[in-house]
Each structure stands twice: as C-alpha cells, then as structure tokens.
Amino acid sequence: MEKALWYLLTATRGGKNRVRIIRALSEKPMNANQLADELELGYKTVRHHLGMLEDHGVVESGENKYAKLYFLTDRFESSRETFETILEKTNL
To answer: What pLDDT, on the 0 to 100 scale, is given for residue 84?
Structure first.
C-alpha cells in the first residue's frame, strides 16, 4: 500500500484532489455526487479519482449501483500512518 499511496498522492497531478477525497471519506461515506458538491469539483473529476483510488485498494464502493457510497478500505486504514507521513513530507 505504501508504494500505491506515494504514486497516487505525489507522482500524478491529481494528488491534491485524491487527498481531499480521502479526507472527506474519513469523515463519512459519500457517493460521487456528494463528494463533488462537498469538494466543489466536477462530477467526472471525482469519478476519475475514485476509480484510481478504487483500483489501488484505497476506497471501495457499496453494492448499490445507483448513488453507491464509497468507503475507505480496511487496507488503507491499516496504512493511515503512511498516508499521514506522506502528507507531512510533501506539504499536501
């Protein structure tokens, strides 16, 4: 998970938005539309970042296809300290 987090947060242009999505989901599960509203981002942008985070095991979605909620994975939660360390080292 450490390599995936470094890649997702620092090696691509979308790192800051992914951090914002992770922080928002740390507060409560949300669907893509709610995240777009909360973070004042475009819906397609949020969906793109959620897809990247899901592909790397950071978030997972519920079973409902319509307005499905996104949650942080247990795998991510066990690596939260790494996430915080990356934020400290990179000022994200």
So the answer is: 95
